[in-house]
Amino acid sequence: MKIYSKKNIDISNSDVIIREATPQDGEHVYQIHIKSIEYFCSDYYTPEAISAWISSKNPDTYKNLPHEVILIVAEKNEMIFGFAFLNLKSKSIDSLYLLPHFEGKGYGRAILFHLEEIARNLEIHELNLSSTLNAVEFYRHMGYEGTTKSVFKLKSGIDLECIKMSKIISSLS
């Protein structure tokens, strides 16, 4: 189900492409996920939680996604540096991650806006997410609201504390 096309986005005079992921992107997405968790989340979660979280990831996961999940990637100079999942069934953003040192340049915002555009095109009125503790301020800055704590239980039994957030992205007609 292709509902959008390759899109060039100009961010701070840099050429970034946000596009639908292919199965060949799976290993890159996996590596970004691991590096991002290690870099951005280590001040918010215990070493045991980070280790369990990372060990729960598998490169094949990103290659064989259910049809209700859209995976997009962001690339610059043919290097993938970010990704995000939009879950159509739950109307939620399930992940948005960047490689370390790509933060603070507008790339996360561009990926998020692209997901919101896809959701609006699919007539989704409101998006939900469970933010990791390190990303709460980013999502608040992007207009997401919420303070309710939730828990993401890893297969290992370790709990990751998150914050439930949501945003109205389009008006009902």
Can you describe this structure?
- By secondary structure, the protein is an alpha+beta fold.
- It has a domain at 7-124: 3-Layer(aba) Sandwich (Aminopeptidase).
- 27% of the residues lie in helices and 36% in strands.
- The chain is built from four helices and eight strands, in the order E-E-H-H-E-E-E-H-E-H-E-E.
- It has an eight-stranded mixed β-sheet with strand order 1-2-3-4-5-6-8-7, with helices on both faces.
- Helix 3 links the parallel strand 5 and strand 6 (126-132).
- The chain is globular and about 45 Å long.
How would you briefly describe this protein structure?
With 173 residues, this protein is of the alpha+beta class. It is built from four helices and eight strands; from the N terminus they run ββααβββαβαββ.
